[in-house]
Amino acid sequence: MRAVVLLSGGLDSYTAAAIAKAQRFTLFALTVHYGQRHAREIEAARAVARALGIERHLELEVDLRAIGGSSLTSDAAVPRDRDLEAGDIPSTYVPARNTIFLSLALGWAEVLGARDLVIGVNALDYSGYPDCRPEFIRAFERLADVATRAGVEGERFRVHTPLLALGKADIIRRGLELGLDYGLTHSCYDPTPAGRPCGTCDSCVLRAKGFREAGVPDPVLLG
């Protein structure tokens, strides 16, 4: 079985891909250069792909900076020490990002003859992005069935979200059970020039919370 996995270099996509591999999928990884403010996560995605023994790792450039609307694709300040219970959608939300990424994955899957997509979205320990919710995933599956030749011919696409209902600590525990090296990953939205995590953006805070609750040290911080 072939599956296209969206691989960002973060611990969520790494874990989701590893779970799919454990389910005996042959993985084709897609990493998108979308004009994000740093290249560290691209380097991490390459390292993760090598560690997983990905069949093929495709990197695409789809520069979203011209669209704007996000502090991840502009010089706008990344929020620090934000109240994650506030319920607002932060400026790090990139408009329609997962819709765009899954559409690219869907196109490649159709060419590969794959009917399975894998994405590491999470609806528990996350920043409140609308395109990480189960209703978005269900809607995209319906879209895939009507928007592709394969779908019109009766094939069904499935978007696998193995982390959707897991907290960050449970994700980390699952990855450690699979033998993953989280020292290869990168999560920070706004790292230092040396590539070190800032420690105060949403992603850093959620990652720290996950490792703390899992009772294990974050190998990125030990390096």
Q: What features would you highlight for this structure?
A:
five-stranded parallel β-sheet, Rossmann fold, 11% strand, single chain, alpha/beta, 223 residues, 5 strands
Low-confidence sequence ranges? none
Integer average pLDDT: 94
Tell me the total number of β-strands: 5
Question: In angstroms, what is the radius of gyration?
Answer: 17 Å
Shape: globular
Number of helices: 8
CATH class: Alpha Beta
Number of domains: 1
Order of helices and strands: EHEHEHEHHEHHH
Strand order of the largest sheet: 3-2-1-4-5
Q: What is the CATH T-level topology?
A: Rossmann fold
Just name the CATH architecture. 3-Layer(aba) Sandwich
- The amount of beta strand, in percent, is 5-15%
CATH homologous superfamily grouping: HUPs
Distance between the ends: 37 Å
Alpha-beta content class: alpha/beta
User: Major beta sheet, specifics?
Assistant: 5 strands, parallel
Which percent range fits the helix content? 25-40%
In brief, what are we looking at here?
With 223 residues, the protein is α/β, with parallel strands linked by helices.
Write up what this structure looks like.
By secondary structure, this protein is α/β, with parallel strands linked by helices. The protein has a single domain (2-222), classed as HUPs (Rossmann fold). The protein is built from 8 helices and 5 strands; from the N terminus they run βαβαβαβααβααα. The longest helix has 16 residues, at 97-112.
